Amino acid sequence: MARKKEIDKDRILDAADAVILESGGRFFTLDAVAERAGISKGGLVYSFPTKDALVAAALEREMSRFSTAVRARAESDGGDSRRQLLAHVEQALAENDSLSRQAAFLMVALVHAPDMVGPARTFYSHLFKQFEPDTLRGREIRQAVLAMEGLFLLRGLGFVDVQAEEWESVLKHACETIIGNY
User: Fold this and answer.
1) Dihedral sign, CA of 32, 47, 117, 17?
2) For the segment 130-139, what is each residue's pLDDT rounded down to a tens digit?
3) Which residue in 14, 26, 101, 159 has the most C-beta neighbors within 10 A?
4) Residue in 114, 105, 117, 87 with CA at minimum distance from that of residue 152
5) What is the pTM of this model?
6) How many Cβ atoms sit within 10 Å of the Cβ of residue 107?
C-alpha cells in the first residue's frame, strides 16, 4: 500500500512569501505558488482552498513572527504598555525592506475579504490598547503610531519612494513621542 503524501503547509507559505517578494505581488497566483513549492495546484488547493485562505494564512504567520519578536523585546525590559509600544517601533526599525513590502501586500490583498482580516484586526486592536486616546499624551502617541503604520503601508505597497533615512526618522520620532508622553 502506498503511503499518503503529506503536504507541508510551511513549505507552501514559504513559497507564497517567495512569490510575493520576487514579483511584488504582481504574479501572485495559486499556480505560481504551487510551482514554487514543487507541488500540484490540487495539492495546494487541498491545503488552502482559495487564494484568500492562502494569503490569510501567510499574513497570520507573518504577524505572529512580528508579534513574537515584539514580545521578546518588550519582556526583556518589563513588558508594560510603554515598553510594548517601543518594542513595536524598534522591531519595525529592525525589519528589512522586503519583509515590510511582503506584510503590506498581504494586508492589502485581504481588504476585499473582511472575514479573513481577523488576525490583522486583532494585531492592531492590541497595538491601540497600549495608549489612552482620550488624553493629550495618548493622542500624541496615537498620531505617531498612525504615521508609522501609514508610512509602512504606503512604503510597502510602493506608493511612495521612502528612503531608509526618512523611514528611520519617522520611527525614531515615534520612539521619542512614546518616551516623551509616557
Assistant:
1) negative
2) 999 899 999 9
3) 101
4) 105
5) 0.86
6) 22
